[in-house]
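One thing: mind reviewing this one?
=====
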Amino acid sequence: MFESKSGVLLVAGLGFFAFAFLSNALVPALMYRDLPEQTTTELVEKNSNLMYQFENLSHRYPEQFAKHVGEASQENCAEILELGRRVYTGEGCWHCHSQFVRPVSREEDRWGPVSKTEEYQNELQRPVMFGTRRVGPDLSREGGRRANDWHAVHFFQPTMVSHDSPMPSYPWLFEGSPDKPNKRGIALITYVQWLGSWLESYPYYENFEPTPLPGDEPAGEGEESAEDAEVATAE
């Protein structure tokens, strides 16, 4: 076998496969075998970022939220999060999106911090949807990168926010328009906003301060404000 080049390559290939199995499967399994698996309820209780997004949905779509969910409580959030996971799986989102940032090709520059084993030790990662195809971006760090409104429009008709998107539309997750998500639509948005929300580097898009446009001069600069004008008139 070692007398031919093909034999050497075969043995080398098997050796590299064995090394990869040990380093990427067996060693992490032994390291974290005593790590308890978190329930969905525990995930919600320890995640204020997720609760922010859930409450934000109740404010952005008050009628739909009250109709399909009720209150923005931790108990309801856990239920909706589990439903969102089932919707994500059932709609085949995992066919085109991975949930694993690999330590190669500087993936952390595109998707965020490299994935860690302990992130997958919970009920919502059964089965784990690492994925290999990336027709769309990796979603393991998607939570908080975009507003709930963006996700609603994106699920309703992707090309409305991404002109060349190959992603199909999901109008059955809404009641006629993107501002009226049904229970499954709210659940899917909640699940996507959960992905990566447990990280310290969670992106707080709500702290974004827009750059003033020409003509948007603050009160006191240029023309006087309407309030100042009323005071002057009264005097």
